[in-house]
Amino acid sequence: MARPKSFDRENPGSLYDTFDDKHGLFLESVTLYRRTVVARRLEKLDEPGPARDRIAAFFEDVIRFSLGEGRLLGCLMTNSAIELAPRDRDTALAVAANFAEVESAFRKVLRRAQVAGEIAADRPVEDLARYLTSGLQGLRVMAKAQQDEAALRSVVRLMLATLD
Amino acid sequence: MARPKSFDRENPGSLYDTFDDKHGLFLESVTLYRRTVVARRLEKLDEPGPARDRIAAFFEDVIRFSLGEGRLLGCLMTNSAIELAPRDRDTALAVAANFAEVESAFRKVLRRAQVAGEIAADRPVEDLARYLTSGLQGLRVMAKAQQDEAALRSVVRLMLATLD
DNA sequence: TCCATATTTGAGCGATCGTTCAAAAATCCG
DNA sequence: CGGATTTTTGAACGATCGCTCAAATATGGA
Predict the structure, then answer these.
(1) Nucleotides on chain C within 7 angstroms of protein Cβ
(2) Distance CA A65, CA B87 (A)
(3) Which of B33, B24, B132, B23 is nearest to B76 (CA)?
(4) pLDDT tens digits, A131-157
């Protein structure tokens, strides 16, 4: 794990006073990330306007981020799921809770779309929300290997077609 | 990176004679993985029978692997995409080539399905193949966080519905 | 002001990392 | 056989890891 010199060469002690150990510091970082980065992103699904457009805009944002600002780092939750979750129970719990949160946000907007008549009332909202969450993770992986914006957009287009 | 003691405490030299360095060894491992594990899995898409059933069986295999034998390690290509690709050009190239290969295998089976009349001739095979590849990666991430077989299967069900 | 207490500091511990290489052992050739 | 060559061996290097703690400094109360 990268560590700025100011934290471990000049004054590692303060870090170990505040958090118990490296693992504790990491878990706190995950919590902070969820409360800021993830929360902010999910809020976008709640914005006014046609619910389906909100979902499309959400994925458009993710693509832009993945190919731009977040090209190197990607998403901490996706990275943690792949790198840490299988061998670290605490991380696994945090990641599972995060995915549940994302799913919940999708459910909310999908129900809104149903009420607005944009999505048929008999579509399985729970399954669709999970499907979108999984598809989101797929995009994050794909974006790391090929920076082809048009390709990623075509994936999103087919994902959104499932809502019809 | 895990290293069996026999390789680096008893005789690290032989390893450095065979491969230049740790990075070279890793790239050789990726190549071997693609030629064995990935190739074997993709062959399943070529087996006889209705093409759509082949795709369904393929994803069923992936779910079984992800929750069973591969629960801890997962897929080397997915892991490499997330962990290494953004900072290592060689890995990025190998992962991109791998995903292209997966996509190509999906295209092949989708075309077969079109010829057999199982999938409408006007469906965009290229986009669908990429969509399935991305969806596959999504499953691999989801499986690391929640070992819920029914949930993963419901995702696959919706993915396959896109083929209709 | 003076002492007690709290905070900041960075040197440094033992472990492991990626890697090298001299010495020992095995193998080959005449 | 014997000597030259190749292979095997594991000790060890410098860097970095996660982490600790005594000493230096700052701060608070009397």
Answers:
(1) 8-12, 17-22
(2) 17
(3) B33
(4) 999 999 999 999 999 899 999 999 999
Alpha-carbon span A77 to A135, nearest angstrom: 14
**Which residue of A86, A137, A152 is in closest CB contact with B74?**
A86
Q: Which domain holds residue B80?
A: 17-161
Does the structure's ipTM exceed the value 0.85?
A: yes
Domain contains B32: yes
CATH number of the domain enclosing A82: 1.10.357.10
Helix axes B149-161, B125-145, angle to 10 degrees: 170
Could you identify the residue written with the tokens 């048009």? A150
Instruction: State the maximum Cα–Cα separation within chain A, in Å, rounded to a whole number.
Output: 61
- The full 3-state SS of B37-102, as one line of letters, equals HHHHHHHHHHCCCCHHHHHHHHHHHHHHHHHCCCCCCCCHHHHHHHHCHHHCHHHHHHHHHHHHHH
The closest alpha carbon to B113, from B64, B48, B26, belongs to B48
Residue A15 to residues A18, A21, A80, A101: CA-CA distances in angstroms?
5, 8, 22, 30
pLDDT for res A69: 97
- Are A114 and A127 spatial neighbours (Cβ–Cβ below 8 Å)? no
In a domain, B118, yes or no: yes
Residues 21-80 of B with CB under 8 A from A: 71-74, 78-79
